[in-house]
């Protein structure tokens, strides 16, 4: 796979038009007065008062509640379904199956592989079998219990490590390999290993993680004759619109998708689910609105995951720290349908550090498990877990500081891409240096801080990262309306998935037009009223949308100045704006306030349209980062405590310091989950079912599992080539190196290398009993 | 102990005990005004499955007479029947805290509370922390400290902090962390939530 | 979603027992575990009998003999924060404060905590396991990393989920049970049921009985107690390995001791081996080590929980060292 030649994962399957070029190429901001400041969110009031209406909050008159019956087996054929008892239950208004007229639909799973909406062959636990709508969700649940399904239960394979074995049950007819292994090679790794002074090889594994955003997956669907409106918890209303229209055979104009607020996605809500279409079918059948949100347990089996990864990494280094060769083989699974099970796991190995000889090979297997969905920096934290621990081990072998080893191998161009293009900016070196300084790295390595007790050992560790996209790009179309009183309406298709997108866009408008952000209303994420936008994912929303917003603001300004020029009787080129007033550059005493501009008064509104221009040719726009942490390990019980973190991230311009830091602490927290608390447990031997499909057995980090001692150190390198606001993506890089940094710190504390996630007492107490740590 | 508890159970504005309804005789919509005394020796009424009975819920100081089934949770009634959607549904299993409300000032999961068990108690939801259109101090602190991302766990986090501060006006960092340890935040904004709780304590006591 | 059930809130214990006598009724105390079980279809209930109107079941009172009487309907928070309990029965307060999450401690009751259903994912999930009337315990051949190392009786490998019961057992508490024939008092030690006795029951309670009170005897002079729990995350998690200690010292010497393990067995697991290893001795490092060794000598780990052996050793060693210097 060549990600450079392909659409990034978050745009796969999404029809993407190109927007026109912006009118002019604005100069970079020299000094900003609003952008970059720690501004609380413009929609903060709605979020903390309860007045924000999330899709799951939508209540419509005469609304029914939908629910889906799901196959309880990992591999089974539906022999028969009897819905007669369910239909007779009180409150039940519709029961549908694959044989209901209109419900025999094709469901495209991806990469050309399809199933039916209600497929008689269920290839994973949780596949949809039937659905109901009833007056209350309780009655809908009663109805599910009353549907009688007879299954042919078939043999299964749920562990990808067994999927290639001869005799393993085949998920699809052609076997369990999704495709031929994906290979990448540059240089000559054999030569590279021969040149090395030290060669190490290690096997690593990361366990499967589940997204589990707080708001459940689902929607409310309502028909007005042949017009369908869907309120969906989604990262991209247009992505939902296009797939629903495709599956139901409707014109795009007849599908309106609204998602003003959404309660988290992390990649699992980039596309609609079967539930979206099922809700629409139930609403059509009953001629009433239907609310269909999944149960928490359903989201565990059907709404994607970060696949488990088995990695073997071999690395060679010279005594002076020069990396000579890296070789990675990886196997994984995206579940029962093509879903990028090993996608991008090798990217850190390919491109983070200078290395002339690199070879990677990735093999993706089908298993009878729920299909993966992109999960915050797909593949990257897994590859980082291997590479960054390997770097740590190499540094020790050649007696070099781990930070120095990384500094020795800083690339200035992307080695893994054709033509070896330069980065528009690379802050990797600065992140390492600034982070190390803020952390007190050298001191901390030399003098381990004292713990209270001799069985509590402290250690420090670090890791760095690159995120393979993060520059955004076209298309984006923004409509900005300036009203007669100088307030504005910003109209944008993109969702704010919690990163502060709306606030940052208001700040961009404010920066250009001098309007207070509180006077800017943002209308977004509604295919009926806002412009086309790609889903918010890939850390691309800010770098994609903010230049288009800036272009729209510049266009409004152009029109406004042309009007003011008539009032002030000068040429528009002589005018400037400040604090809501227009004045003559060389005669600031001659001024007109925005509401007093005659042309604006007369027309009532100025409409400016802004487009996202193309990314710079032959340049790669990637964010970088480095994280440092200190842990304390109980070397008897294996309990670990994260004591502090310093995160230095370079994502171009810091657009809002408050939301920037929030992304950093959020990414770290999720990384702590990968490192120490989260893992999917499948009953691989007996039933193939998911054991831990709830938040008690599947353990997200709680408030007590993280540290409040997190320092975000933004490394702001003004990247004037990336785009007109200089912003790069942030949401994903911040979670890439965290787990590896923790593993390195645990090694520093105990001398034990933890190659499998999660680092918890289950694993550590056994390791410590086999190899006691001296107290 | 007994005394304090009894006092707490009777803080509802009507002065009615929470038990008043079901210890009274009769079927259907027995008016609470005719409720029998607490120590009624008469036989308790059995609410039948799949049928509704009228109960009185006191939410944010307002009384609601509402028909409920025995199996309806307080969460369901608040959100889908009273339209108080500030309280969120995350798991319905008592595992995430998005549905946290105060019952007599104490944070509880409304997903694991039957509506019929909530009768007569003072129930406070996120909406009840507002002063008209103005944010309450805990809400204000969450806004200022950016103590959320997607905002879906936020109502529960705010209620947990509100409950904590009603018991303990100036909590330590450890007490704050423990106070919100029953509320998951998948976006991982915990650090800012701690800072917001700290600021809220100051705002509530007139400092900060 | 919850299935259908009838609901009643009797005004007296007798009324509650009456209602429980009818077919397939269940006690609703705090409701946190009950509603979860009903939602997961672990068992059905035709009628829920709420105890929330029973004020007699509230309150924590000093008993005539100097002990403490804890009404079964006290919340876990009330137990964790009660000064008398913190003073005299520290292990119980510590155990209570380690239960689940703050909200669940505010809702769940001490009686309910003792009567809660196991957290085994086969039992809670869509698996027709032995404890639910099926024919097989999936844990023996399956994902058993969080299962027992003692007392499965080769029937069922759950661990008992309570953090308060080990402490109550360590203090030799008694449980008052109300039933159709009146009250009976049962030592906590005899309250729980091992799989070999009845694999579908966790306690000796009959369907028409309910726990009304827990009676703690006055601890002997020189008693020190503690509870410690290791888990994979620091909130809302059950014990991987835990230990409740109630040790009576005379000077530096252990006069008597009751040691109960959590996360170890289908019932709170009294470790006679540890008790034997420390009674009559000073808790020096040799005694502590041998006690920790003794604790796991009889353990029978499953395929994925071998770690519990070093983990229990570590926890017992740490706690004995701590209590020796408390």
Plain-language structure description:
The complex is a heterotrimer of chains A (775), B (208) and C (326). With 775 residues, chain A is an alpha+beta fold. Chain A is 26% helix and 25% strand. Chain A has a seven-stranded mixed beta sheet, sandwiched between helices. In chain A, strand 21, helix 13 and strand 22 form a beta-alpha-beta unit. Chain A starts with 43 loop residues before the first helix and ends in a 5-residue tail after the last helix. The model of chain A is unreliable at 1-5 (pLDDT under 50). In chain B, strands 3-2-6-4-5 form a five-stranded mixed beta sheet, with helices on one face. In chain C, 29% of the residues lie in helices and 21% in strands. Chain C is globular and about 60 Å long. Chain C is α+β, with helices and mostly antiparallel strands and 326 residues long. At the A-C interface, helix 3 and helix 18 of A face helix 8 and helix 12 of C. Strand 1 of chain B pairs antiparallel with strand 1 (6-8) of chain C, so a sheet runs across the interface.
Short description:
The complex is a heterotrimer of chains A (775), B (208) and C (326). By secondary structure, chain A is α+β, with helices and mostly antiparallel strands.
Keywords:
heterotrimer, A: 775 residues, alpha+beta, 7-stranded mixed β-sheet, 5-stranded mixed β-sheet, 18 helices, globular, disordered N terminus, C: 326 residues, 5-stranded antiparallel β-sheet, 4-stranded antiparallel β-sheet, 12 strands, 29% helix
List the helices and strands and how they pair.
The complex is a heterotrimer of chains A (775), B (208) and C (326).
Chain A: H1 44-49, E1 64-70, E2 76-82, H2 84-88, E3 92-97, E4 106-110, E5 113-116, E6 121-122, E7 128-134, H3 137-146, E8 148-153, E9 182-186, H4 189-195, E10 198-206, E11 218-224, E12 227-232, H5 237-248, E13 255-258, H6 274-286, E14 290-293, H7 296-302, E15 309-317, E16 323-335, H8 347-351, E17 358-366, H9 380-397, H10 402-407, E18 422-423, H11 428-439, H12 441-446, E19 456-466, E20 477-483, E21 488-492, H13 501-513, E22 520-524, H14 541-568, E23 575-578, E24 581-584, E25 587-593, H15 598-603, E26 605-611, E27 619-620, E28 624-634, E29 640-650, H16 657-677, E30 710-714, H17 738-750, H18 761-770
Parallel strand pairs in A: 1-14, 12-13, 16-17, 18-27, 21-22, 29-30
Antiparallel strand pairs in A: 1-7, 2-6, 2-8, 3-7, 4-5, 9-17, 10-15, 11-12, 11-14, 15-16, 19-28, 20-21, 20-26, 23-24, 24-25, 28-29
Helix pairs in contact in A: 9-17, 13-14, 16-17
Chain B: H1 2-9, E1 46-47, E2 53-59, E3 62-68, H2 74-81, E4 100-103, E5 106-109, E6 122-124, H3 137-144, H4 154-167, H5 173-179, H6 190-204
Parallel strand pairs in B: 2-6
Antiparallel strand pairs in B: 2-3, 4-5, 4-6
Helix pairs in contact in B: 3-6, 4-6
Chain C: E1 6-8, H1 13-21, E2 25-28, H2 32-39, E3 47-50, E4 60-62, E5 68-71, H3 76-81, H4 83-88, H5 90-97, H6 102-107, H7 110-114, H8 121-124, H9 165-170, E6 174-179, E7 182-187, E8 210-216, E9 223-230, E10 241-250, E11 253-262, E12 269-270, H10 272-278, H11 285-297, H12 308-324
Parallel strand pairs in C: 1-3, 2-3
Antiparallel strand pairs in C: 4-5, 5-8, 6-7, 6-8, 9-10, 10-11, 11-12
């Amino acid at each position: 796979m060549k990600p450079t030649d392909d659409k990034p994962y978050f745009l796969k399957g999404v029809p993407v038009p190109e927007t026109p070029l912006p009118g002019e190429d604005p100069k970079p901001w020299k000094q900003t007065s609003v952008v970059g400041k720690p501004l609380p969110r413009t929609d903060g009031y709605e979020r903390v008062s309860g007045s924000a209406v999330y899709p799951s909050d939508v209540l419509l008159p005469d609304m029914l509640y939908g629910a889906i019956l799901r196959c309880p087996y990992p591999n089974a054929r539906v022999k028969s379904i009897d819905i007669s008892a369910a239909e007779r239950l009180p409150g039940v208004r519709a029961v549908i199956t694959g044989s209901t007229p209109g419900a025999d639909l094709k469901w495209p799973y991806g990469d050309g592989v399809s199933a039916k909406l209600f497929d008689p062959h269920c290839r994973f636990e949780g596949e949809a079998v039937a659905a109901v709508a009833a007056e209350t969700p309780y009655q809908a649940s009663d109805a599910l219990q009353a549907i009688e399904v007879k299954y042919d239960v078939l043999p299964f394979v749920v562990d990808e490590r067994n999927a290639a074995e001869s005799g393993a049950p085949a998920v699809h007819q052609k076997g369990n390999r999704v495709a031929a292994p994906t290979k990448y090679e540059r240089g000559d790794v054999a030569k590279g290993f021969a040149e090395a002074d030290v060669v190490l090889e290690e096997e690593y594994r990361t366990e499967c993680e589940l997204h589990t955003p707080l708001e459940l997956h689902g929607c409310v669907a309502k028909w007005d004759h042949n017009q369908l409106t869907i309120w969906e918890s989604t990262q991209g209303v247009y992505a939902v619109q296009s797939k629903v229209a495709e599956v139901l055979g409707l014109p795009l104009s007849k599908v309106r998708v609204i998602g003003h607020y959404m309660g988290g996605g992390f990649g699992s809500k980039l596309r609609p689910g079967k539930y979206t279409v099922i809700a629409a079918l139930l609403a059509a059948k009953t001629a009433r609105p239907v609310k269909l949100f999944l149960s928490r347990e359903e989201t565990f089996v059907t709404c994607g995951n970060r696949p488990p990864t088995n990695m073997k990494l071999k690395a060679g280094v010279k005594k002076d720290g020069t990396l000579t060769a890296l070789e990675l083989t990886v196997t994984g699974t995206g579940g029962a349908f093509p879903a990028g099970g090993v996608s991008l796991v090798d990217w850190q190995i390919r491109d983070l550090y200078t290395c002339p000889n690199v070879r990677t090979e990735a093999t993706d297997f089908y298993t009878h498990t729920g299909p993966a969905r992109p999960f915050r920096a797909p593949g990257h934290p897994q590859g980082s877990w291997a590479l960054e621990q390997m770097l740590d081990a190499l540094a020790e072998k050649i007696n070099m500081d781990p930070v120095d080893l990384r500094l020795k191998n800083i690339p200035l161009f992307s080695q893994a891409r054709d033509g070896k293009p330069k980065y528009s900016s690379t802050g990797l070196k600065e992140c390492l240096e600034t982070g190390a300084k803020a952390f007190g790295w050298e001191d901390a390595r030399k003098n381990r801080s004292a713990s209270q007790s001799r069985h509590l050992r402290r250690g420090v560790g670090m890791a760095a990262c690159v995120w393979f996209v993060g520059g955004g790009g076209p298309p984006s179309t923004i409509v900005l309306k300036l009203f007669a009183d100088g307030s504005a309406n910003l109209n944008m298709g993109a969702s704010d998935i919690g990163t502060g997108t709306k606030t940052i866009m208001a700040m961009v408008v404010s920066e250009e037009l001098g309007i207070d952000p509180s006077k800017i209303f943002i209308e977004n994420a509604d295919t009926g009223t806002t412009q086309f936008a790609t889903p918010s994912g890939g850390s691309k929303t800010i770098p994609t949308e903010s230049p288009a917003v800036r272009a729209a603001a510049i266009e409004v300004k152009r029109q406004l100045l042309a009007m003011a020029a008539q009032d002030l009787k000068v040429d528009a080129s002589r005018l400037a704006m400040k604090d809501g007033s227009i004045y003559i550059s060389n005669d600031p005493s001659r001024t007109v306030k925005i509401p007093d501009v005659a042309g604006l008064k007369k027309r009532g509104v100025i409409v400016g349209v802004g487009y996202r221009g193309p990314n710079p040719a032959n340049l790669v726009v990637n964010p970088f980062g480095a994280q440092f942490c200190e842990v304390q390990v109980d070397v008897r019980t294996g309990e670990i405590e994260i004591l502090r973190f310093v995160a230095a991230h370079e994502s171009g311009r810091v657009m809002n310091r408050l939301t920037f830091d929030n992304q950093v602490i959020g990414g770290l927290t999720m990384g702590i989950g990968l490192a120490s608390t989260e893992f999917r447990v499948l009953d691989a031997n007996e039933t193939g079912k998911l054991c831990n499909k709830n938040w008690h057995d599947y353990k997200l980090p709680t408030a007590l599992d993280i540290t409040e001692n997190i320092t975000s150190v933004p490394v702001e390198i003004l990247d004037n080539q990336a785009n007109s606001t200089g912003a790069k993506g942030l949401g994903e890089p911040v979670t890439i190196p965290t787990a590896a940094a923790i593993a390195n710190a645990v090694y520093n504390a105990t001398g034990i290398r933890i190659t499998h996630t999660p680092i918890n007492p289950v694993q550590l107490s056994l390791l410590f009993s086999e190899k006691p740590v001296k107290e | 102990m007994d005394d304090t508890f009894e006092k707490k159970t009777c803080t509802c504005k009507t002065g009615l005990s929470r038990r008043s309804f079901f210890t009274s005789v009769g079927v259907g919509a027995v008016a609470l005004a005719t409720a029998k005394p607490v120590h009624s020796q008469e036989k308790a009424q059995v609410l039948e499955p799949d049928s509704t009975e009228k109960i009185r819920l006191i939410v944010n100081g307002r009384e609601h007479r509402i028909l409920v089934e025995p199996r309806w949770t307080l969460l369901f009634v608040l959100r889908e029947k009273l339209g108080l959607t500030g309280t969120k549904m995350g798991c319905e299993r008592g595992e995430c805290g998005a549905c946290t409300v105060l019952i007599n000032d104490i944070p509880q999961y409304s997903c694991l509370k039957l509506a019929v068990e909530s009768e007569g108690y003072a129930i406070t939801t996120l909406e009840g922390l507002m002063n008209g259109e103005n944010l309450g101090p805990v809400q204000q602190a969450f806004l200022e400290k950016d103590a959320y991302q997607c905002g879906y766990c936020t109502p529960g986090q705010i209620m947990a902090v509100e409950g904590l501060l009603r018991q303990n006006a100036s909590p330590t960092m450890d007490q704050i962390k423990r106070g919100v340890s029953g509320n998951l935040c998948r976006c991982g904004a915990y650090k800012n939530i701690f800072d917001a709780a700290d600021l809220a304590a100051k705002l509530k006591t007139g400092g900060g | 979603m919850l299935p259908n059930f009838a609901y009643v809130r009797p005004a007296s214990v007798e009324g509650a027992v009456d209602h429980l006598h009818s077919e397939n009724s269940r006690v609703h105390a705090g409701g946190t575990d009950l509603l979860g079980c009903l939602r997961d279809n672990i068992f059905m209930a035709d009628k829920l009998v709420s105890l929330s109107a029973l004020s007699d079941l509230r309150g924590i009172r000093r008993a005539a003999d100097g002990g403490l009487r804890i009404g079964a309907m006290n919340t876990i928070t009330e137990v964790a924060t009660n000064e008398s309990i913190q003073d005299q029965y520290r292990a119980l307060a510590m155990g209570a404060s380690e239960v689940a999450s703050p909200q669940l401690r505010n809702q769940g009751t001490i009686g309910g905590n003792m009567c809660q259903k196991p957290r085994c994912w086969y039992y809670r999930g869509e698996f027709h396991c032995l404890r639910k009337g099926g024919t097989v315990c999936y844990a023996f051949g399956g994902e058993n990393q969080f299962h027992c190392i003692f007392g499965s009786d080769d029937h069922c490998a759950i661990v008992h989920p309570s953090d308060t019961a080990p402490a109550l057992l360590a203090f030799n508490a008694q449980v008052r049970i109300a039933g159709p024939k009146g009250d009976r008092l049962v030592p906590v030690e005899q309250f729980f049921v091992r799989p070999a006795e009845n694999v579908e029951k966790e306690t000796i309670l009959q369907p028409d009985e309910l726990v009304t009170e827990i009676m703690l005897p006055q601890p002997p002079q020189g008693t020190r107690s503690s509870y410690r729990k290791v888990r994979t995350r620091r909130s809302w998690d059950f014990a991987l390995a835990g230990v409740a200690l109630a040790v009576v010292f005379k000077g530096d010497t252990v006069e008597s001791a009751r040691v109960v393990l959590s996360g170890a067995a289908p019932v709170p697991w009294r470790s006679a081996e540890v008790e034997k290893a420390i009674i009559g001795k000073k808790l020096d490092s040799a005694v502590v080590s041998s006690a920790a060794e003794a604790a796991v000598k009889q353990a029978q780990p499953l395929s994925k929980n071998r770690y519990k052996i070093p983990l229990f050793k570590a926890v017992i060693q740490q706690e004995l060292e701590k209590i020796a210097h408390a």
